[in-house]
Amino acid sequence: MKRLPNEIVQFFQNQGYVIVSTLDRNGIPHNSCKGIVEIKQDGRVYLLDLYKSATFNNLKRNPRISITAVDEHKFRGYCLKGRAKIIPVEKLKPEILRSWEDKISSRITRRLLKNIREEKGHPRHPEALMPKPKYMVVLTVKEVVDLTPHHLK
User: Fold this and answer.
1) Angstrom distance (rounded) from CA 38 to CA 139
2) How far apart are the first and last CA of the chain?
3) Does an H or E element contain 7, and which?
4) With 38 labelled, which of 69, 106, 122, 140 sits at a CA distance of 20 to 30 A?
């Protein structure tokens, strides 16, 4: 397990979502968007998945995973690579699900405020239509890739 600097932990905590990459049965990358529930300096990242589909099936076959986030405005980004463990939703503590619901409520509030300020985005509130989480992915980070161009560090 790789210890994560506070700067990277905060970077990922500030992202609305991350891109999760897994490998399908043919070794072809599959990408999907997921929300981080928690990220810890000890190198563990907790994600909830709302669907038991491609990512779930890929992880059952092969636990290798990476998550990527970028901040286009600051021209920074990171990729965390490692191995995943699947935790069934029935085994999750209620506070984890409450934390997820709080994040969704916060996203809806931000969208409403932007719409009030005439920064029109999606005509509906997609977060309100999301299903309940189906399982949790716990990523144990083995490698951190800094995506920031060297000349900007």
Assistant:
1) 11
2) 25
3) helix 6-13
4) 122
β-bridge mates for residue 143, sequence order: 81
Phi, psi torsion values for 17, nearest 5 degrees: -160, 170
Nearest to 89 by CA among 131, 42, 124, 27: 131
| Phi and psi torsions of 34, nearest 5° | -140, 155
Task: List the domains of the chain with CATH numbers.
Answer: 1-89+133-153 (2.30.110.10), 93-132 (no CATH)
Question: Rounded mean pLDDT of 45-62?
Answer: 95
Average pLDDT, the chain: 87
